Amino acid sequence: MIKKGVTCLLLFITLFLVACSGQGVLLRQDLENWFGAPEKIEIHYEGEKYTISKDDEAYSQIMSLLNKKILSTYKPSTADCDYDICELESVKQNGLAVELVYSKEMNADIVCGTDLIKRRYNRLLMPLTGDLSNLIFFGNPDIGGNALGDFENNDALIDYINQFTQG
Question: Across the chain, what does the average pLDDT equal?
């Protein structure tokens, strides 16, 4: 009887560990839980700006693709990259970037490894092409600060935005 109970307990623990081992995805947060839902999304494509409101179908699709980008990153980390307005404006003019725009200043407490990062921002800029394409910049020139890094997997998002801007 005791042997049967121990076997059941071991089986339960094994199943629990297997279910929770998928790179921590079940325990990690998506974009909106980390940063909040933006009021609108701005797409910057080679100098052109496209604004997408929450009511647009493209808003949900872009947020879904951004969540996949965030969740596919095993361990985001801070990047020692100051908020350089000139460099980021260059990204908007010469490449492809997604900017999440908030109607008020937001606060985020983000756990990166063992670090707790506190940020205030009213925009998040994510270059999708170029040397900065693995970063998320906290936009608030008055505050400055670092970016979060090691975000990859831009292909599906780039493909969707190309279709959106050409359609």
Answer: 74
What does residue 119 show for φ and ψ, rounded to 5 degrees?
-135, 145
Across the range 53-62, mean pLDDT stands at 93
Six-digit token string for 37: 């839902």
- Please provide residue 40's backbone torsions phi and psi, each rounded to the nearest 5 degrees: -155, 165
Distance CA 35, CA 25 (A): 17
Six-digit token string for 136: 């998320």
Biggest CA-to-CA distance, the chain: 72
Q: Which helix (H) or strand (E) holds 7?
A: helix 2-19
Could you give the CA distance from residue 103 to residue 114 in angstroms, rounded to a whole number?
Answer: 31
pTM of structure? 0.73
DSSP H or E run through 57: helix 57-71
The residue with tokens 């990153």 is: 73
